[in-house]
Design a protein that fits this description.
Layout (H helix, E strand, L loop, with lengths): L3 E6 L6 H13 L3 H4 E4 L11 H11 L2 E6 L13 H11 L3 E7 L8 H13 L2 E4 L2 H18 L23 H15 L9 H7 L3 E2 L2 E2 L1 H7 L12 E5 L11 E5 L3 H13 L4 E3 L10 E3 L3 H14 L8 E5 L3 E6 L9 H4 L10 H9 L9 H11 L7 E4 L3 E6 L29 H12 L5 H8 L3 H13 L3 E4 L6 E4 L4
Parallel strand pairs: 1-2, 1-3, 3-4, 4-5, 8-12
Antiparallel strand pairs: 6-7, 8-9, 10-11, 12-13, 13-15, 14-15, 16-17
Helix pairs in contact: 1-6, 3-4, 10-11, 11-14, 15-17
Length: about 500
């Protein structure tokens, strides 16, 4: 990041020590040094330019004019004007931010022209008095931090609650907002109808203020969230072995809002892990069991999306290996929360509270603070031999261990299920698409609602897979729209 240039102006002879202190302070302070680059004439090497031209050039190219005024007016040019006043006026001409600090001297002790300069300055800018070098440093620090806040270089509010500098409500998708309201009303009793104005919904969720929208609103409802946050994506990769090696058999970079990201990443995993299909011995519906609990996979991905550090240039990575599923999240645990505590009941400290609340209302988050515990419980109930792991390194990792490869059906190159399913109609169909085909084959006339309850995956995914099977002439719909269902097309 290009540093913010600060031009320090004063009578050199009167404030030699203060100028040196301020320059050193801005350069060495842990926070100020990251953002600011001070200029004082004393640090200029010998050059074949006049002092006036050097001053003028620095004021023109600085971002902040910092004036320290005291008793002396200083050297006067042929027009009776000092360099300090010239610099102050020039900074105003170039519309620079002007910060003025006034020594706490009795006004009668000041040079008359210095008093006039101070009067001119106080009509244009707010000036701050100081009585010691310590007070000057403190006053300068406060003013520079306020500058960083106003320019939004730093924030005092969470990332998701910060109002975006460019995005407006027109960048949001009103249909997405209406769809969210419908889901939130059904799942959590959200107190607004779907036809409510977008502004009403956003205001209620604290996602909008002063006709500006927050970062959370963009991640939730923007037409193109990656236009504003390019790294708000999920990279998914499938490896046949246990290490990251090339070539990568399957790799996708998913984009969209947070709801779309979760659905796409979960679909990626579920379509590439093993599935066991039971019989009708105990029920008319065929039981289906995924190698990894879908709810645990979903919870782990939702946690990564809801709690990641969106200021990071890194992206969420979902990597499926032969022996495990790893989810990498660019972020870190909140202060005081450890990976050991994640395995026990703990308080919820969402990194992005305004993002987490709509995800809860939409049913993506069940109960705050129980996500990691649910993942552990679900994997234990599924009979997985190794418990999930949570690791805090440079990034946060969640690892779900797959079943022993000796106990599971081998996964083919296409990522589909290669065993436990009768041949014929299921040949050549991959992953989750194959699951639907098997369901329809064993449950003629089954509808989308029943498929959704059995597979526990999003309806949009089911509809996409069904459309694929219809295009391949493997299934057909029979009956009335509300009471009919799907049947396998017999090619014999």
């Amino acid at each position: 990041m290009k540093k913010i240039r600060v031009f320090i102006s004063s009578v050199q002879s009167e404030f030699a020590e203060e100028r040196r202190i301020l320059s050193h302070y801005m350069t060495t302070d842990a926070l100020l040094g990251k953002f600011f680059e001070p200029f004082i004439f004393e640090n200029v090497p010998a050059v074949n330019y006049s002092a006036t031209s050097v001053y003028s050039n620095e004021v023109e190219h600085c971002d902040i004019y910092l004036g320290v005024f005291g008793k002396q007016y200083g050297f006067e040019d042929s027009e009776g004007v000092s360099p300090t006043e010239r610099e102050f006026d020039l900074a105003g001409l170039y519309s620079k931010t002007r910060l003025v600090f006034l020594s706490n001297d009795v006004d009668t002790d000041r040079d008359l022209k210095e008093r006039n300069l101070i009067q001119k300055a106080q009509q244009l800018v707010v000036r701050k008095r100081f009585a010691s070098n310590f007070e000057l440093k403190t006053a300068v620090y406060v003013s520079l931090i306020r500058y960083l806040e106003e320019k939004e270089y730093i924030r005092t509010t969470p990332f998701d609650a910060t109002l975006h500098t460019r995005a407006v409500i027109a960048d949001l998708d009103s249909q997405k907002i209406a769809a969210f309201v419908g889901i939130a009303s059904a799942k959590r009793g959200f107190p607004f109808p779907a036809e409510s104005p977008s502004e009403t919904i956003l205001t209620h969720l604290n996602l909008m203020a002063q006709q500006r929208v927050t970062n959370a609103a963009i991640l939730l409802f923007a037409k193109n969230p990656q236009q504003f946050f390019i790294s708000s994506e999920i990279k998914c990769a499938h490896f046949h072995g246990t290490t990251i090696t090339k070539p990568i058999p399957s790799y996708h970079v998913y984009k969209g809002d947070v709801f779309q990201l979760v659905n796409q990443a979960v679909d990626f995993v579920l379509s590439r892990i093993d599935v066991s299909v039971g019989t009708r011995e105990e029920s008319i519906q065929v039981p289906i069991q995924y190698e990894l609990p879908p709810a645990a996979v979903t919870e782990a991905i939702v946690n990564a999306v809801a709690h990641r550090d969106y200021t990071s240039n890194g992206s969420i990575q979902v990597m499926l290996f032969k022996d495990r599923l790893e989810i990498w999240n660019p972020g870190s645990l909140p202060y005081g929360l450890t990976t050991a505590k994640l395995r026990k009941p703990h308080s919820s400290i969402p990194a992005n509270p305004l993002l987490a609340e709509p995800m809860y209302l939409a049913g993506f988050i069940e109960r705050m603070g129980t996500g990691t515990g649910d993942i552990i419980r679900l994997c234990d109930e599924a009979g997985l031999k190794k418990a999930p792991e949570f690791l805090q390194e440079e990034i946060f990792k969640t690892i779900l261990w797959r079943k022993n490869t000796n106990d599971i059906v081998e996964v083919g190159v296409s990522g589909g299920v290669s065993g436990g399913v009768s041949g014929g109609v299921s040949g050549g169909v991959s992953g989750g698409v194959n699951d639907i085909l098997v369901l329809i084959e064993n449950n003629p006339g089954i509808n989308v609602s029943s498929i959704k309850s059995l597979l526990n995956i999003p309806q949009r995914t089911i509809e996409r897979w069904i459309n694929q099977l219809k295009k391949e002439n493997k299934i057909e719909f029979k009956g009335a729209p509300k009471t009919g269902g799907y049947f396998v097309i017999n090619t014999n």
